[in-house]
Amino acid sequence: MRDGPERQLDLNLLVALDALLEEESVTGAAARLHVSAPAMSRTLGRIRTVLGDPVLVRAGRQLVPTPRAVELRPGVRALVHQARALLVPEPVTDPARLTREFTVQATEMVLHGLAPRLVRAVVRQAPGVTLRFMPEALEGTPALREGRLDLEIGVIGHPDPETRVEPLGRTRLLAAVRAGHPLARRKTVTARAFAAADHVGVSRQGRIRGPVDEELAGLGLRRRVVAVVPGWNAALFLCRESDLVCLTPAGAPSHHLELLGLHTFEVPLELPPVALGMAWHPRNDADPAHGWLRDQVRQSWRTDSFSG
Q1: What is the pLDDT of residues 94-115, one digit of tens each?
Q2: Could you tell me which residue ranges the HTH lysR-type domain spans (predicted)?
Q3: Longest dimension (CA), the chain
């Protein structure tokens, strides 16, 4: 048998019952909930109908709870507190007490510059947090929407419509060659000399042509791409062992290039800057822990580290 309308669940009745049992006064409960006394009196009538108990009865000029009301008081109080805890935004997370694993996708071009500072911040502030950096293979997939990624950092290509994207900065690209490369001995590298050298491309999709080739074509020039590799590190190591030219983000850690014995120079082309940012799914907008992580990314990011 279905409950009638008067027995359907109404959480507002719990809040009103909690106020009535604490105040033991229709007027006091009305003032506490910012409603009129007649409205609270009607609510008390509904509560009496639902419970099948008068709840509050008059004793002289006062109202006193019935035995059933006294029995209900602690349970009602606890339920109202739990409901408010669920609906009221959580306080700012204390990182020192946070236990969480965040899955982050970061492109190689920013991982070397950003990860050391971000990891140091996590170690210092939140010993219970683990950062799990994932390969760029998830880029272009619904990983953020599906919850497989918490945050994406780098070149944000074609995000889902609901994805939140926050710009972090821009970087330009430099050319890198081994120290003994013929171009390393030039004070100025022309577009013609740049195009005449053999190149290694970087593309996760294996693409041979890109913005560099479009700019060269506009000058009536063409380069030879000997190899295409999926990541920046592989390209830099390949340049160290050959006479190939590769591109590297300006501001890549100088000690990394020095250890590899690489020389960098300005690309003699008008290449557009590379926009970098972070992206997340809106389900995490109000999550204090995720908000803390985004703050750490912002604070760890230094524009000059990626602009050269």
Answers
A1: 899 999 999 999 877 777 778 8
A2: 9-66
A3: 104
